[in-house]
Amino acid sequence: MTQPSATLPAEHERIGALVELMKQEQRLLVAADADGLGELTPRKVVLVQELAQLSRERHAALGRAGFAAAEAGMAPWLAAQGDDAARGEWDRLLARTAEAKELNRVNGMLINRQMAHNQTVLTALRTPTAGAADSTLYGAKGQTFGSAPSRRFVLG
Questions:
Q1: Residue 55: its pLDDT value, please?
Q2: So what does this one do (predicted)?
Q3: What is the dihedral angle through the alpha carbons of 50, 51, 56, 62, rounded to the nearest 10 degrees?
Q4: pLDDT of residue 112
Q5: Which of 20, 21, 46, 107 has its CA 20 to 30 A from that of 126?
Q6: How is the chain split into domains, by residue range?
Q7: 137-148 burial string, b = 16+ CB within 10 Å, else e?
Q8: Within 10 Å of residue 19's Cβ, how many Cβ atoms?
Q9: What is the pLDDT of residues 105-132, one digit of tens each?
Q10: Which residue, among 80, 48, 73, has the nearest Cα to 59 in the 3D structure?
Q11: CATH topology of domain 4-129
């Protein structure tokens, strides 16, 4: 029977790689480097999928050992084992996971800030400026729209 701690080294390696990618992502977000971000995304997806699979394996092993087949089962299993090395590996994994969660939170804020900036720019491009009454703008599908004076009639 596979021990629940068997996946911990691989999980630790993957979460470490994910943290490094998220730090790189943060630098790219600050620099507004969309191309660089596009290259990171597939690598992040693979790491997250691998982490999810390793977690499922650990949960299954916990369930087979008679503990809750979830994160909550790990602490009681470790206590029952008395394995200080596994406890240390688990604690390091939890610390790295907390670091990844914080990076994810900050990166999310940076993404929201960039999206707000982009929306402001788009609004400015779509809003006619004073003195440019005859300007024409192009929409997302290439259609033109302008702010030229309209011919509205008042009926009374």
A1: 97
A2: Required for the efficient initiation of filament assembly.
A3: 130
A4: 86
A5: 107
A6: 4-129
A7: eeeeeeeeeeee
A8: 18
A9: 999 999 888 877 778 877 888 776 655 5
A10: 73
A11: Methane Monooxygenase Hydroxylase; Chain G, domain 1 (1.20.58)
* Tokens 């997250």 found at: 48
**Could you give the CA distance from residue 24 to residue 13 in angstroms, rounded to a whole number?**
17
Q: Which tens digit of pLDDT belongs to each residue from 56-103?
A: 999 999 999 999 999 999 999 999 999 999 999 999 999 999 999 999
**β-pair partners for 148:** none
Phi/psi-derived region of residue 134, left when phi > 0, alpha when psi is between -120 and 50, beta in every other case: alpha
Amino acid symbol at 6: A
Q: Is the pLDDT of residue 147 over 90?
A: no
Helices (H) and strands (E) counted in the chain, each on its own, are 4, 2
- The set of residues, in sequence order, having a beta carbon less than 8 Å from that of 63 and lying 6+ positions away, is 69, 73
Residues in the chain, total: 156
Residue type, 34: A
Residue corresponding to tokens 């977690």: 55
What is the rounded distance in angstroms from the CA atom of residue 119 to the CA atom of residue 125? 10
